[in-house]
Design a protein that fits this description.
Order of helices and strands: HHHHH
Distance between the termini: 29 Å
Number of domains: 1
Low-confidence stretches: none
Shape: globular
Mean pLDDT: 83
Structural class: mainly alpha
């Protein structure tokens, strides 16, 4: 099970590293995809339901870290491939969103 404090620090570092990489190098192909999908992104990022952003980012990051984890079991007691979605959000996702001035439920 993926609950060790060090793992959360590793996840924070990975998220920050990926964010910096993407922020520094946005190719023309990415710009085209972004502009072609503005309405789709607006649904997520302009929604008053901030948890959409948090869950989307958290699930993507969890899957990137360990694709064996079952995204449908976000409670630690749900089995060997489960994870604590709430703790992951509190330890990794929300601090990242706050530090980078993205709207989130903990503002």
């Amino acid at each position: 099970m993926w609950l060790v404090k060090a793992d959360y620090n590793e996840a924070k570092n990975l998220l920050l590293s990926l964010y910096r990489q993407v922020s520094e190098i946005v190719s023309e192909d990415v710009e085209i995809v972004l502009s072609d999908n503005v309405a789709n992104f607006d649904c997520v990022f302009l929604s008053k339901t901030q948890s959409y952003r948090e869950v989307l980012l958290g699930c993507a990051l969890i899957h990137r870290i360990d694709s064996r984890l079952n995204l449908r079991t976000p409670y630690a007691k749900q089995g060997a491939n489960a994870f604590s979605g709430r703790t992951f959000d509190e330890q990794v996702v929300n601090p990242f969103l706050q530090e980078n001035l993205f709207p989130c439920s903990k503002n």
